[in-house]
Structure formats: structure tokens, C-alpha cells
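INPUT
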Amino acid sequence: MPELPEVETVRRTLKELVIGRTIKSIDIYYSKMILDDIDYFRESLIGKTIKDINRKGKFLIFVFDDLYLLSHLRMEGKYYFKDSNEPHLKHEHVVFTFNDGKTLRYHDTRKFGIMTIRKNDLYDIPPLSLLGEEPFNLDTNVLYNKLQRLKKTIKEALLDQSIMAGLGNIYVDEVCFLSKINPSTKANKLTIEDCSNIINSSIITLNKSISLGGSTIRSYTSSLGVTGRFQNELFVHTKTTCPNCKKDLTILKIGGRTTYFCDKCQILR
DNA sequence: CCCGTGCCCTGGCGGC
DNA sequence: TGCCGCCAGGGCACGG
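OUTPUT
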């Protein structure tokens, strides 16, 4: 499932391919994933040139002269760059055709992804306004103060993108392991030092994953033939034994999410 | 304001 | 072998 490193990998790969290209037409095969009126969506983008691709949290932001296209891949969304004469595949829900005959195709088997047009108030309205800072820019005291107000577990808190943006199920397990924090620990029990450890572990984990092209796990493969290698570096998620003490890992549902941890190295407080 | 629940989807897999 | 039913899960809507 695409988390921050996967989205960053897609962003970097896609930038090289689509910046400077102008949209000639848009074919929409599954309109529910477009949150805007379809005619408005199409009319807004046709004739426009992609200037840049940015990212905030797990959102991709296609930058045009006077507007933005916000895209969230959710579980299985991916982009393919192909010639327009290549056949239309099942699950290719939105196809952007450029002036030069190239196409950018959004593919999503489970149809969870969304796209929506934004104007200059992009960061002032949801969903981007609801995102917390990414760990790279997150102050320890800010995280500590947010966690103090919560009654839920640290696992749930770290999955909440308004607390900190960028971690999904896989990376939260990795960060808790590296920080020696039991994922069932109530968020308001954590110390300043824990928060510092969480931020540092998050930065290390995300940067390492980005440098390896993200994770390819379960059904998710990145776009354009890019295969992430970070899944080979995971410490606990999907594993059976603790890489530190060799004890069997515990697998629990926390906040409805499958959670892997070592109950010896990550003592519950 | 906070919390819990359910929904959106479909491919893959376990069980029989 | 085939079929059924459940599960995966990020973000959001909704109700208490």
C-alpha cells in the first residue's frame, strides 16, 4: 500500500516523464473517484501544462499554472505512462492524453483512490489543511503536546495523519519497534524522549525506504515498473521473529489494523 | 470535541 | 477443483 515513501517514489519518477506536457483530452472510466463535477474537472485540466509535481503526506499534487490536481492513491492506486495506442486495461480509471500522444493512466483495482481540483487555497482547506507535519519538520514538543491530549494508543495516533503525516500501517510498526515502544501504549503515557525517538525513527525509516524506492508489499507495486526494495529491510511488519531478541513476535489488531511487535523489546507501559 | 462504527472496493486466499 | 465468504485498509461520514 502506498505510504509516504511509495508516493515520493512515484512523484520523483513521474516528474521526469510528465513535466512540460500539455493535456489534450481526459477519458474517465470510473467517475466516482473524481470528487468534482466531471465536466468541471475535464474543462479545468484540458489545455493545461503540468508544471511540477509536489507531495504532502501521502497526497500527490500536480501543479498547473492556475490550479492543482490533488491525487491520493489510497491502497492500490498507481500511475502508468504509456503511448496512446496501447490498449486500455481494466482498472485504468482515468487516462490523460497529452498533445504528443503520450498518456498518463491512473490504475486502481480497488477504486479507493481519489482525485480533485484545488485552487490557491489548496493548503487552507481539507484534506491538506487537516494534515499534521511530516516527521522531517515536526517539533518534538508539538508531537508531545498532541499526544498528551489523546486517549487512544500510540499505534492509532501515528496512523492519524493529523498528528503526523506520512506513516501508514507498515511504517508505524517499524517506528514503534525502533523506538522500543509497545504499540498498545496509550499515547498520553509517552515522554518527551519517546517523542524524540519516534520522530528520529520515522525520519530514518522513511528516508531509508525512499532511498530504496519504497516498499512493494502484498498487491501493491509502484508505477512504471518501479519495484521498491524496502520490504527486504523491514524489522517486524510481516515478520515472525524479533530481529533483536529472536523471540516470536506478537500479532494483534490495534485500531482495526494488523500490528506486529515484540512484547519483550517493546514493553507495555 | 471525541470516540466508535461502517463504508468504499475487488483480488486473493482459506476452508470445505 | 470450485465456490463461498472473509479479509486487506486510508480516510471520511455519521451518530452517540
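end of record. The first strand of chain A starts at residue 23 and ends at 28.
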